[in-house]
Amino acid sequence: MDDEKPITEQVMETMTTAVEATKDAAVTAVKKVKKAAKKVAKKVAKKVAPKKAKKASKKKAKKTAKKAAKKSSKKAAKKTAKKAVKTSTKKAAKKKKKAKKSKR
């Protein structure tokens, strides 16, 4: 340090140079980190793409299975309802016949 300059000025100069050096180092570090992150992102994207496709196909299969199950259950419900109506009318007719016979 210079003996001719006052101590406060010398300290200020040292601080500013240190701050500038730190700033430059931080900027370069950020740049390096960004570059590395991009590389990693590319690698991950390559690996994730097939996984995503697999996941999507799995999801789609699940959805179609669910739809099919829903459809078949609806059909079964309709069928049972129809059967119930038929059997109930038959039973009612039988009861009527029996009632008529018992009256004779």
In short:
With 104 residues, the protein is mostly helical. It has one domain (1-74). It is built from one helix and no strands.
First CA to last CA: what distance? 134 Å
By DSSP (H or I, 4+ residues per run), the number of helices equals 1
- Output mean pLDDT: 77
Radius of gyration: 42 Å
Percent strand equals under 5%
Number of domains: 1
Unreliable segments of 5+ consecutive residues: none
Largest sheet: none
Give a written overview of the molecule.
The protein has 104 residues and is mainly α. The protein has one domain. 93% of the residues lie in helices and 0% in strands. The protein has 1 helix and no strands. The longest helix has 97 residues. The chain is rod-shaped, with a radius of gyration of 42 Å. The termini are far apart. The mean pLDDT is 77.
Which descriptors would you attach to this protein?
about 100 residues; mainly alpha; 1 helix
Topology:
Elements: H1 7-103
